[in-house]
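Hi L., both proteins are below.
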Amino acid sequence: MTGISADAWVLLALAAVLIGFAKTAIGGLASVSVAVFALVLPTRESTATILLLLLVGDVIAVSHYRRDCDFGLLRRLIPAVIPGLLLGTLVLARVDDVVLRRLIGAILLLLLALQLLISARDRHQTQARTWSTAATAGVGAVAGFTTMVANAGGPVMTLYLLSQKVDKMRFLGTIAWFFFCLNLCKLPFSAGLGLINRSTLVTAAVLAPGVVLGAGVGVVTARRLRQQTFDRVVLVASVLSAIPLLLP
């Protein structure tokens, strides 16, 4: 903590507010916070600190949207999530900060490209897309991997849920429960890698009020948000957050 400058604290605080807002309104905006934390903190420390802050936001999101979850969709995804988490843990244990930082950026850009492709193809489709068992398992595995390595599983779930044509409240409830359970599962993996320590706990505790503030604003905003606006903001946030991570 002592190595963080005042300007860096301001950036981290704003990113914490954005995490809370993303958890209760526009999930894709969390990618911006991932980028900010990865740029300001050592990359491994950033993943652990964000995980703790995401859990704060998860608790708030679940408390607000607990009745809106589609548990049928979640049951089809969850079995494949654990292998994705294990693979992500292996990557975290073997790569250095520079490689991990660029990997996060590449993952975000890849997810952006996939979202653009599917959105363009399904522009006039009104019925939910039918996913095979293998494709659904693939979504779960990729969500587990990306959230373990880069805390960037949100865009994967966004693609999946948008293809299912879920309404806004069902979307928010399903996302809230999925990532609450997923982030709880990630805690022992992160602890086993030595990422949860005194420094990350203290940093997260200092920034947690920002998450609460952002979540409150997000709840109010979500009730007024149009789906078209949601889609556009997610795409813009994803590309803006990914590009800086790929630069030298």
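That was the first. Here is the second:
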Amino acid sequence: MMKWLWLSVLAVILDQLSKIWIASNMNLYQSMPVFPGFNITYVHNFGAAFSFLSEAGGWQRWFFALLAASISVGIVIWLKRLKPEETLSAISLGLILGGAIGNLIDRVIYGYVIDFFDVYYQVWHWPVFNIADSAITLGVALMLYESFMHKQQEG
């Protein structure tokens, strides 16, 4: 099911191009309103999801880079072992792989991940995220959907 790797490549390209555009056209912490509930806000995330370990002193950069690289290798092996009828699994894994590589590139090059999607309601803001994070989230959601649908078909 390696034919779905184009999704990974697409996710990485869209992610990296968007981050380059943001970093080239905005100042750090600058925020541009798009519509109520959504801003483009340029931030650096030195941690993982939800800025987990962002204040850890620097070691987390290489820890998360190594983790993402290891997971990426595991996903490629998993993709190779999928059966032809496991299309949704291949799509899910392709998106997760693309997201992991997109954020891995940032960690290795910059030491942080560039985030910019800022979703909020009144004064509550969801942690700022990017296209790579969105690809990972969509991939995981599709994987969960598939597992629930598979369980319903069995039961």
